[in-house]
Amino acid sequence: MPLESLPILDLSTLDDGPDAAEEFRAALLAATHDVGFFYLTGHGLTDDDIATAFATAEKFFALPLEHKVRLEMVNSPHFRGYNRTGGELTQGRVDWREQIDIAAERDAVTDPAAPAYMRLEGPNQWPGGLPELRETFTVWEQRCAAIGSRLLREWALALGSPADVFAAAFADRPSTLIKLVRYPGRRDDDRATQGVGAHKDPGVLTLLMIEPGKGGLQVEHDGGWIDAPAMPGAFVVNIGELMEFATSGYLKATTHRVVSPEPGDVRLSIPFFLNPALDSEMPVIDLPPALAADARGVTQDPDNVISGTFGENMLKARLRAHPDVAARHHADLVGRPASGDA
Ligand SMILES: O=C(O)CCC(=O)C(=O)O
Ligand SMILES: [Fe+2]
Hints:
This is 2-oxoglutarate and iron-dependent oxygenase domain-containing protein. By secondary structure, the chain is α+β, with helices and mostly antiparallel strands. The protein is built from nine helices and 14 strands. The longest helix has 28 residues, at 131-158. It is globular and about 55 Å long. The termini are far apart.
């Protein structure tokens, strides 16, 4: 029978003794082998934390357009800042959403000999008139990174590896990214039904918070789509291409998309992406025989070659999604092979 909804996992059961923890790990492995997506409850963020995050995101989107465009991503060689509705592409088609991208706050790398992907490191563009946005999402980033690190330890154990097998890649300068996203309601013409087009996430792990009461997210499974509406208080968690790479395809990076809300409706979401340092190599896990027998290999797509170096994947994804930033700041990289010399 086709699956009708995503599996649900409760992170707090990890504190209920070794048997409960073992059960959690088995469920984690099954969910991300079969579906690649699950709901996560018991993660420690309260309803108040979540309500504050959405209220802050709403305040940002309510700013006049002339304030928001001062922070436009096209100003940033590091792919940070605001994209107005229609400012991003997936599979070459316009996504009908507006958003601000906030990544790890660091200085830009000035060494001209650094690999091209180090250009992704740099400062964010923060809205001057809304200081609470920086406060709220700096804390959100820390909380989500801690939840993500905990999940990575449990995956490591479930995969028969030492708990810290992924830790080195994340220890120094992990690449975190938060997007605040607003999907306007569908208009009457067709092109506006793609909130975000079908894609896999390029990194390791995504913790997505959807505005309470909203649908729209669909997850590919067995040749069909599973609807994944907001579940009160829960994250939607999924793995990306680099986790598929690390497990030789035992875990699955799953295609998903967001269908635009009905005309007149609006949907907010807050995806958090946890990724290793740009210049780190994601370890390829030595799977126990029982799991290795079920590893499907990494999906081979000549248009989307997956590298073990996270920065290569991320740069490729960013150049593809934001051709205006690429043209203004990275003309030297446009049209180069998907994976190759930095
Ligand atoms: O907004 C959502 O529900 C999902 C967004 C998404 O898949 C992404 O930004 O990668
Ligand atoms: Fe995604």
